[in-house]
Specification:
Layout (H helix, E strand, L loop, with lengths): L1 E6 L4 H10 L6 E6 L16 E4 L13 H21 L4 E5 L26 H16 L5 E5 L3 E3 L6 H11 L2 E3 L7 E3 H14 L3 E3 L9 H11 L5 E3 L3 H7 L4 H7 L17 H8 L1
Parallel strand pairs: 1-2, 1-3, 3-4, 4-5, 5-9, 6-8, 7-10
Helix pairs in contact: 1-5, 2-3, 4-6
Pfam families: Epimerase (PF01370)
Protein name: NAD-dependent epimerase
Length: 281
Amino acid sequence: MKRILITGKNSYVGTKFMEWVSQWPDEYQVEAISVRGDDWKQHNFSGYDCVLHVAGIAHVSTDPKMEDLYYKVNRDLTIKIAKHAKNNGVKHFIFMSSIIVYGDGDKELNVITKDKAPNPSNFYGDSKLQAEKLLHEIEDESFRVAVVRPPMIYGPNSKGNFPKLLKLAKLTPIFPAYDNQRSMLFIDNLSEFIRLVTDSQDRGLFLPQNREYVNTSELVRLAAEQQGKKILLTRLFNPLIFLLVSRVNVVNKMFGNLVYVKEDNEKYQTADFVNSIKRSL
């Protein structure tokens, strides 16, 4: 029986992971605690085989007034929890970072490998990157750290940009037919990936993703189709998008390129892209 502690109660990733491993009740015992406030410091982490740290502030604001809070939660809280876990004898720590440490995307298709130097474009990405660096400082043979940098995570009742695209697909009669590529990660694929990492107690840097790259136009078309609606895709707006994609953040998020190199990832693929969209609606 492997005991796993999730720090970040009610988080999307943590909740879905608990649901996923409930398929194997004799193999995993998973608990989740809130790390808001200081009560978590009284929780004894000894006895857990792994801590899955998913608590954090997502990329929801670029307001400079939020900058200090991002660093306090994404960086400072992460290292405090990791040190508490290490001092309590936990052997394995999984940190949920983000693809955003590489920036928001590019006009050109520049494939990201593990060797690519991070280049965060905002304090959200930088706060995650700084947390990674501090974790590596306390890592040793008895405290193994796995840093996971997922791309856009989506699934049933997910948050962020994906539900906005679903809503757009339902409302708009027309959408740009623009050629771009994005790495994405279905929540069940991520949950299976995490399960495998906990089983092997792997350490290092991980760039999980779906088997297929995703084109935003095709995603919106497919989402509309699954909701019983047809969308007209047109290249009429492409010249304008090409001009704005590296200058306007919202356009870059939608039509910029942001992909990981395709590596052997078949072990955690629980659904292909079409079926994952069906399961997400």
